[in-house]
Amino acid sequence: MTLEELDAYFHEILPIDEFAGIDSSRNGLQVSRQSRKVARVAFAVDAALQVFDEACAWGADLLFVHHGLFWGREEVLRGPHYQRIHTLIQNDLALYAVHLPLDAHLSLGNNARMAAVLGLAEVEPFGLVRNVPIGVSGRLAHPLSLEEVQERLFGPAFSPLAVLPFGTPRVESVGIISGGAPLEVEQAISQGLDLYITGDANHVAYHRCRESGINAIFAGHYATETWGVRAVAEKLAVDTGIETTFLDLPTGL
Q: Are residues 82 and 147 in the same domain?
């Protein structure tokens, strides 16, 4: 598969162009490569040296990430930013980034995949960012405790950043926005949801949740944003036969 064909494929399965005026991320191909052929694609959450090293060790031709290197403004090539770009070019490793389009996608997105694992029904778009919904909400077939929700999503040994048990002990309705959306709990409160799930925690959210009687799980930015890249990796392998891998390098945050 050529680099151009792969770029066209990603644009076909993800609404990249639809978010051009909304997302600060420069979604799409961020760093090209000399060779136009792509046979192995690594997937990860973050564009960082540790990730680049792992991708190169695996023999990737392209690295697909959720958090890329370019966020809508020029950045001089020096220090860590230079080293990242130098590593990509030196190893002929292309970099592809998809941010909000991967959060918002209703089958491949971070939020949709978490909803599917929870078994949510009546799933619909939720959580406005610049007037565009990027999360999802839905209802559980059977009420679950906060511990059961957490274990179903992240496993029994997982430690979230914070859990606020200020609502009903058995939850039925859930709103999810992956990544950094702690204050968007206001939207869950306004819809009368039992539980709000996001990544980052925020001091201000504590009393809003307590006073509004809503449960919240702040699971960590990384933990809530592995889902989409994993889903795209699986789909790419099935659709094209390209070899893929997910590089799991958690930050604990």
A: no
